[in-house]
Structure formats: C-alpha cells, structure tokens
C-alpha cells in the first residue's frame, strides 16, 4: 500500500460498526489523528498526540467497505483527535459522502470557521460538539491550549450556528475531575434554546499504549477493523 495522501494520512483508526456513537443510528467511525488541545483527561491521547505510533490504514479498503455496507449503515462518524484541525478534512468528508451516507463529525468547537464551511458545502450533516465546561475553566481543562477569551468567542459562533440550524448540532460534556454540578449548569446555560447538554460519565484514562476510543464512555478498540 502506498502512503495515503492528504487527510487520509490522518486516518489511524476505523470501527466498522457502532450502535451508540451516533444516537439513533448505526454508524461506522473513522478516527483522525492530531488535536489542537491537550486535555489532561483525554482518552484518545495516543491518537491525538502521537498518531504516527498507530498504523496507517488503506483508504481503498475503507472506501470499499462504505460502498459495500452502505445499505446496512445509517451514517458515518468522523472522529478524532480533532477532525477540524486536519488539513483537507472537507475533501475526505466529500469522498465519504460518495457512499450516499450522512456524515456526523465530532469536534471540540475550537475551529468554528471550518465547521461553518463544512456545513455550507453540505459535507457534514451533524456535529457533536464537546462543551468542556465554563469558559473560565477552559485553560485548565484543555492543558492551557485555549484561553477563556478564545473559548468564549469560538463557542459563541458554534451556538449561533446551532440556533440557526438546530438539527445540525448536539452537545455533550464529560464530568471530569474538578468540574462541579454548578459548572455543568453554567455550561448548559450557554446553549441556544431547545438544545440539551448530554452529561457523559468520566472514566479515568489508562496511560498505556492504546488505540482510539469512540467516546469517553466506551473503551472499544478502534484499529484496522475493516473487513
């Protein structure tokens, strides 16, 4: 297999079936390496910070799987890491959508301009955005990768888009250590009308060599599972 080009070179994990990652849908999951945050509680730390320690996957096998199983799936999730930080992620989403399946993308919301473009070009149908907590706690929750001011500005743009396109977004928060019920209530108050904040249980990460996890509640391996 030749080295994948563009955003496909960031695809370092694939799960061929998930019943819980996209609520109400069966989906497969592409995991993209790299992240613009350094959250100390991250479960996908190897994928996010050291993707080159994970194997490169064959794009042709993934595309073939999508074509062959499109009738059995309700969608495709693009997760990470942080997909919006991957150069050319729109081109990857375009190729995924060729299978005729809707696309959901997981994001931390810190690149709202990319999200806006993906929505405008109809390359992503739904965004699952993680709200880390109150804006004042973003520096500590993200390993000082985001300031309170930047968090407020970026998430404000996300919430504006969600208010304009309510069906295109849902929001979640993980109750990590140091995050109180009052903090979660503050984060909930940021959301536009008719949006709920799903609270995810925190499971302490195991700092050993692991593959990606679909979300903070699951510990399913996500390696080269294409068949």
Quick structural overview:
Its cofactor is [4Fe-4S] cluster. Pfam families: Radical_SAM. The protein contains 7 helices and 7 strands.
Describe the secondary structure blueprint for this structure.
Layout: E1 11-18, E2 27-32, H1 45-49, H2 59-69, E3 75-79, H3 89-97, E4 103-107, H4 112-120, E5 126-130, H5 138-141, H6 148-164, E6 169-174, H7 181-190, E7 197-200
Organism: Pseudodesulfovibrio karagichevae
InterPro entries: Aldolase_TIM, NrdG2, Organic_radical-activating, rSAM, rSAM_sf
Protein name: Anaerobic ribonucleoside-triphosphate reductase activating protein
Describe, in plain words, how this protein is organized in 3D:
This is Anaerobic ribonucleoside-triphosphate reductase activating protein. Residues 207-221 have a biased composition (Basic and acidic residues). It comes from Pseudodesulfovibrio karagichevae. It holds the Pfam family Radical_SAM. This protein has 227 residues and is of the alpha/beta class. Helices cover 29% and strands 17% of the residues. The chain has a seven-stranded mixed beta sheet. The longest helix is centred in the C-terminal third of the chain and has 17 residues, at 148-164. The radius of gyration is 17 Å and the shape is globular. The chain starts with 10 loop residues before the first strand and ends in a 27-residue tail after the last strand.
């Amino acid at each position: 297999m030749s080295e994948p080009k563009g955003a496909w070179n960031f695809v370092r994990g694939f799960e061929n079936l998930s019943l819980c990652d996209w609520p109400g849908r069966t989906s497969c999951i592409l995991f993209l390496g790299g992240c613009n945050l350094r959250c100390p509680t991250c479960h996908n730390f190897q994928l996010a910070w050291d993707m080159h320690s994970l194997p490169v996957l064959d794009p042709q096998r993934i595309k073939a799987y999508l074509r062959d199983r499109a009738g059995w799936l309700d969608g495709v999730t693009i997760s990470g890491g942080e997909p919006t930080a991957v150069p050319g992620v729109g081109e990857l989403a375009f190729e995924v959508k060729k299978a005729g399946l809707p696309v959901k993308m997981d994001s931390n919301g810190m690149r709202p301009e990319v999200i806006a473009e993906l929505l405008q070009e109809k390359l992503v149908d739904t965004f699952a955005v993680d709200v880390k907590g109150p804006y004042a706690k973003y520096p500590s929750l993200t390993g000082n990768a985001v300031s309170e001011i930047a968090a407020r500005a970026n998430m404000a743009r996300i919430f504006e888009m969600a208010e304009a396109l309510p069906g295109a977004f849902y929001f979640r928060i993980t109750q990590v250590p140091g995050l109180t019920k009052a903090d979660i209530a503050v984060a909930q108050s940021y959301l536009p009308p008719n949006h709920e904040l799903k609270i995810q249980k925190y499971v302490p990460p195991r700092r050993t060599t692991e593959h990606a996890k679909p979300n903070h509640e699951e510990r399913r391996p996500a390696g080269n599972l294409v068949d």
